[in-house]
From TrEMBL:
Annotated HAMAP family: DXP_synth
Key word Repeat present: no
Name of the protein in question: 1-deoxy-D-xylulose-5-phosphate synthase
Domain of life, per lineage: Bacteria
Domain Transketolase-like pyrimidine-binding: 321-485
Binding locations of thiamine diphosphate: 75, 115-117, 148-149, 177, 290, 372
Amino acid sequence: MSTKILPTITKPADLRRLGLEEERQLAQEIREFLIEHVSRQGGHLGPNLGVVELTLALHRVFDSPRDAIVFDTGHQSYVHKLLTGRQDFSRLRERGGLAGYPQRSESPHDIVESSHASSSLSWADGISRAFSLTGQDDRHVVAVVGDGALTGGMTWEALNNITDDNKRKLVIVVNDNGRSYAPTIGGMARFLNTVRTQRSYLALQSQSSKAFRQLGGGLGNRFYRGVRGGIHGFLSRFSNGEALYSNLDIKYLGPVDGHDIEALEDTLRQAKDYGAPVIVHAITQKGRGYQLALDNDADQFHAVGKMDPTTGEPLKADQGESWTSVFADEIAELAATNPKLVGITAAMLRPVGLHRFKERFPERVLDVGIAEQHAVTSAAGLAYGGLHPVVAIYSTFMNRAFDQVLMDVGLHRAGVTFVLDRAGVTGPDGPSHHGVWDLALLQIVPTIRLAAPRDASRLREELREAVAVDDAPTVIRFSKGVVDDEHDAVERLEDGVDVLVRGSKQDVLLVTVGPMATLGLDVARLLEADGIGATVVDPRWVVPVPQSVLCLSGEHRIVVTIEDGVVVGGIGTRVRQDLRAAEIDTTVTELGIPDEFIAHASRSQILKDAGLTAENIAANVIAQVRGTRIPYARPERTRK
């Protein structure tokens, strides 16, 4: 059996001693490594299986980190990590282990940490301009952008500026596998598919390759590589590839087989030597080398949990229904009785739970690609036209469309419902994926109404209430993973606030936001055991603050708000302000997530770090009630 090559690769320079057959062996080893370790830890599998040869070629041709390589998005960087000295995947996406995205603290080879798509070309534009302006003209910048990310308008804004200066050494590699999470949609996708499947290109490529190699040995190969660029240029003009990009005044090379290491290296060297911005169009296959992924039509194992690599089945049995699944069922049922409802997704149909709606009413669900800003303003237009759009987006990605929520939806009092999946602390995907900013951001939009369900029953009823509002934006936010236990109210007040526990005394009012209700109930039990009466309420609709919450606050000695959003400008702040406006002087303590970029870890670890445990909160309340120390001393905070 041949000696393993992967363990001998500690830096990109090690790749340059390998011959072609050794590179092919290494590619196979990398795929085996990824299948073994990602199936054990969970993570992005399909995208990384598809970029093995491409990443090898990039690190053979370019000199990272002197040449800056930017990934869009960073979930396709696992191979890059392996080739830059990071081969311990035993704690991938766990605290103390490797991040699931590029991370500067891990390696100087990692440039951009954000996992939000469509930003790489702007990064590359800025970096290459900086190199040019500071006399570092021998340094290259490479942006690896997925075809799905090309559906985002920011990429085209960047291209417009990149072509303004043709003296920079900037290479844009389009990793074209025809998919983002699912098949890429829209006009750009149709164009790329035409290039990808052009019969004349495929036939001529095959015939020319065979003919040149029949010349024999190195001479044939050198001759073939020498004319390959010319053939690609001819074919790309024929298939409209160069016609598109020439209008942007940028050189186009391709399409090239993204799994042919030799062809990739040839094309990338041409791009490197060109001395001006170049687009390299590489055709790849998501899930390459792993039949189970290729057979998975839904997402080709885009992101997986811990699973059996031989069967693809999850190792851990489901512990209950997910928030996303509850929403998926309910919105499909509502659509059946309300023909005005339409769904909008930004390239994430299944992850956000609109797939069942689309299965039943395909013409009423729109996938706009990775274009959240367009999704929101388009929704405002749909509302103007008499429909009620339901825009389902991950909470972290909603940040990108705040201006459109404010000016296009809020200002026009459009009846649009936003459903924010993965709200709050999400855990292993790290700082750019936590959905902790939505409460602070969205509550400042005038007229907006914001709900945070505590369990599946509340999600269903609050969604029904939301889509009935046609004169203002509404928001429903829920967490990642399995829904929380059901907590029935002992009383529902006239304005819809649920009282979950009535304290034996009116000492402390605990105002909980969404799934923090469980934590609030645990705190109340500890307080009651210590002789302190605690009332727990779930406002259900947290913005605007219900009047009954203000009234109850005036009846208690202390108010404690608990939320899983950033505490600065959060719901607690809103409660405090409304109490002051109502001239109610009850002390308010706001608990939530600190204003930090929080690294990847489990949800429970992050909440514990923020002091959001029943024991810590109860101890601080007891100290506050008894005046024994300064309230709410949190664990020491560290900034990344």
